Amino acid sequence: MTETAKRAARRRQGKLPGRQDWSTWPHYQAAAAGFRGYWYPVCFSDQVGEKPRKVRLLGEDLFVIRDDDGIFGMKDRCPHRGVPLSYGSKQFPGTVSCVYHGWTFQLQSGDLVAAITDGPQSPICRKVTQPTYDVEERLGMVWVYVGDGERPHPIDEQLPEELVGNSAVLGQRIQQRKGNWRFACENGYDEGHAKYLHRAALWRLFKPMPVWNTTKIVERGRWIYRVQEKQYWAAEFPGLGRWTGLAWYKAKPPKETGNIGNTSSHREVNPVIAAQEFPGFASVSMPGVLRIAYPTFIHYEFYVPVDADDHLYVGVMADFQKGLRTLPFYAKYLGAVRWLFHGQFSGQDKWMVEVTDAPPERLYRPDESLLRWRKLAEDTTEDRLDRLRTQGIAPAAPADPTA
Amino acid sequence: MTETAKRAARRRQGKLPGRQDWSTWPHYQAAAAGFRGYWYPVCFSDQVGEKPRKVRLLGEDLFVIRDDDGIFGMKDRCPHRGVPLSYGSKQFPGTVSCVYHGWTFQLQSGDLVAAITDGPQSPICRKVTQPTYDVEERLGMVWVYVGDGERPHPIDEQLPEELVGNSAVLGQRIQQRKGNWRFACENGYDEGHAKYLHRAALWRLFKPMPVWNTTKIVERGRWIYRVQEKQYWAAEFPGLGRWTGLAWYKAKPPKETGNIGNTSSHREVNPVIAAQEFPGFASVSMPGVLRIAYPTFIHYEFYVPVDADDHLYVGVMADFQKGLRTLPFYAKYLGAVRWLFHGQFSGQDKWMVEVTDAPPERLYRPDESLLRWRKLAEDTTEDRLDRLRTQGIAPAAPADPTA
Amino acid sequence: MTETAKRAARRRQGKLPGRQDWSTWPHYQAAAAGFRGYWYPVCFSDQVGEKPRKVRLLGEDLFVIRDDDGIFGMKDRCPHRGVPLSYGSKQFPGTVSCVYHGWTFQLQSGDLVAAITDGPQSPICRKVTQPTYDVEERLGMVWVYVGDGERPHPIDEQLPEELVGNSAVLGQRIQQRKGNWRFACENGYDEGHAKYLHRAALWRLFKPMPVWNTTKIVERGRWIYRVQEKQYWAAEFPGLGRWTGLAWYKAKPPKETGNIGNTSSHREVNPVIAAQEFPGFASVSMPGVLRIAYPTFIHYEFYVPVDADDHLYVGVMADFQKGLRTLPFYAKYLGAVRWLFHGQFSGQDKWMVEVTDAPPERLYRPDESLLRWRKLAEDTTEDRLDRLRTQGIAPAAPADPTA
């Protein structure tokens, strides 16, 4: 091979370096539109009333509606002529009627109980059943279960443990964002980007971050934790120069530079958070939930697949206080966290999630956290499919197998 | 099969109920972009002058243009380099010249009679013929025939009979709308939706409708009529409650509740309409024409396929009066019909046509009218294809065979 | 076959007349996104600074950036997670760092020299090389070479000869336009359209054009010239009428009507242009460069493929003057040429390039110029591929083989 040909081979744009697909994790690869068999938050509770509210979740179109007996979910497509039922309205208690011909479905069962324009003896009554969804309310939000017809697990078994049975004050943001939910989740749990991408975010005035650190991933129950072992606050890159995220106008890093989990010595720590005995800073669980334990509050992000192209960002800040002790939280949330963290800081993540384009991808050492998250998703899904098989249930094909 | 598996099967979203496709009516299924072999209204007569006017019809791009000898239609794509001829202009009488290189086509024959930029002896002259369209003017509108090269039937054989040879005053609206023309036509002839979808339309203040009724479909000549047999003005739905479209502020229903065709006893009826001896209220004919005979006027809707995605709504209100007796018509049309009927009422139909998504579809008893319309379209098309075959003509493939 | 069937065959819209594809020129047909192995102008020199500037060229995404050592080009996609490197910034001299995780690439070599968030000893350093592009500056513009890894030829061998080593004053416009670059180039070199399409352009007040003329194509070096032999300033089209592009308010045509190349007798001719001894008016060379030699200046158009759908129009007016003699040029360019020629006149071409839709196409006599241009492109490309093969280089597949 001539020098020119070698040069050609080196500079050719064809084959991209690194991993060409995600076939190492086939379930994860197939889950472009999300993992089935979970509860997902879709909106705030006070956004659902007696009029149907359209929801798109895991590529499925449904609506939620409130009735005297609670909140119900139903597939949005009227089987008669395909018109969205969410354009309809409630003509009789406990039902919804399609706007076009008045086909009337029972919210509880999905049964067609009347076709108004064909009279009370319409032969089609009770011959059609519209698919329904299980719906719950938690944390001031409406949660919908998307499965394959199996009986849903209790939602409290899926929520972060400390949010069940403890009283907490919450600051929340729900925002639809472009980009696949997996990029959002990988971005959230990603070890590396926060130190560089967010270096100029205002939130970083209060939250110093090292240039780099060593990490280990620890599994505990449904969660995998990312534990920083040794942190380096400045670094000299040979032949290039020195780099640091610190500045005289920013908060100083903690004295000890070991396990940042040991931050309990700094200030008064909320007992619920302390009771967690968290071994690390950030943790993630299925079906795409990030938990970041700060000394005095916990921040959560739920990445909810709308479909393969869009996701809901649901950010929750929880402080486990009661009564008068909740007042400083509201001041802190409304005065700073909402704008600096759920706003500008998270807006930089939003930007990256929109433009990430992988695979192909060439991972590096800090991406160990991504690999472990993908393995968690893969193993958990394999277990679920085993359970379905023993119940004789064939799971639905993924909504978008190409992505 | 376990209970859970049964639940899974019942709630699974996979297979939709009812009819999965329209293969029962293969010609109808293939006619997403319309039926060939008919005259279609495309615009008002006064919209066509000496400049070419672009028209899209049955997925074909053409233009119409007026000359001393009448109106002509021609395929819009210049064969030289594919530039639209409708960007061109008239340089010599009876011709149109392409804007790009001055290729000049005779309107009557489609023959290339000059290529200006290659001089009078250009060897390409008379070597190229551009496809032309037959064009007629009726009812103040321009009509174009789309066929397969056969000699068109006279347009008067296709127009509603009473519109040929009778003097009538007309109120008209032409509007391009989203959605397939078949949904528009099925919506127009549909027995069921008017009673429910339009229940709050202002037009319904003057036009009472029953909750439901029994119907029979009667064929007469080119038309099939929908005859209401027994009407029910209120109904009690077991376990749900009572429902009625009546209200104290709305017009009352007629005394007799039998064949609504017998409305001639109510008021003075226009003799042309009476001469129709219509056995029912609404009728439909190919290639998608709806006729609704009111006691004192007739309303028509022509559903004109632009392509598989869009259609023209052409609404015509005709009153068979002359001279001074036309004045009340104009008052009625401009004061009420145009806004309430061609406007708000028809706007609700427009909305449904946009969002209808069938097949799959699960039809119910009142959809007998749809089934009969589809059968009419199927049989009529079969007859036409037989005629073409005897003339040695192979019809064009449908413009969009997928829809 | 009956008369009706013949009529059907004649009027059928199915098969279009003329050439159905460009398979006569397979390389040209495959070059929807441009020909590889050439330098292309992408922006003005003063548009490139220390921030990366995104460029799309031949369907490839890259960026250009200025450093102390010159201008560099690099593929825009970070191999880590696919984020555009053009969102990044310069953290160390001679490098660019990805905005997401701080992956840092050397501009000169493309080598990954640091991954900031993984520390100075990151094992991935020097394991990844980002493809780079050769970049040069000429005529106040930045030029990028797109090849297959071979050593680029010197840019001066590709520029129009008279622009190398001669001092000239330039008036320039760079504009991104819709439409394939081949339609732009064919439009530029096309003999026929100028006389008709531009008949009402203000530029034509000063530039008379015949109705038609005879032409011969002359090859000289890298260029093929279009030589007008006999010009006809008016013509009588039999059965239609007389047509001319002249008018009392327009400039008169030259006295002699032979070879328009002999315009040197009219006025003082710039010696550089005269030295060209151009045998004709318009010439074209690879990879899509038009040169129109006016008596006192030369106009160039570079048609730069952005991808198969868009191209850059780069218009350059050059006058080979120095010192005070440049002043009239600026007055002429800013006062007239920029608005009338690079503006309105060229805007008519822009419109046609957008709507041209070929093949299919039915060419006519003046299209001899197009055929010769396509043959030039075909032969030149065949020669280049031969050279690559002897170097052991396999060229990349075209970016968009369908168009």
UniProtKB/TrEMBL annotation, chains A, B, C:
GO MF annotation list: 2 iron, 2 sulfur cluster binding; metal ion binding; monooxygenase activity; oxidoreductase activity, acting on paired donors, with incorporation or reduction of molecular oxygen
The UniProt record lists the Rieske domain at: 39-144
Show the Pfam families listed in the entry. Aromatic_hydrox (PF11723), Rieske (PF00355)
Give the Gene3D superfamilies listed for this entry: 2.20.25.10, 2.20.25.680, Naphthalene 1,2-dioxygenase Alpha Subunit, Chain A, domain 1
Which parts of this chain are annotated as the region Disordered? 1-20
* Record has Cell inner membrane as a keyword: no
Tell me which UniProt keywords the record has, alphabetically: 2Fe-2S, Iron, Iron-sulfur, Metal-binding, Oxidoreductase
Superkingdom of the source species: Bacteria
The UniProt entry, under PANTHER family, shows:
BLR4922 PROTEIN, IRON-SULFUR DOMAIN CONTAINING PROTEIN
Question: What name has this protein been given in UniProt?
Answer: Rieske 2Fe-2S domain-containing protein
Per the UniProt record, the source organism is: Actinomadura soli
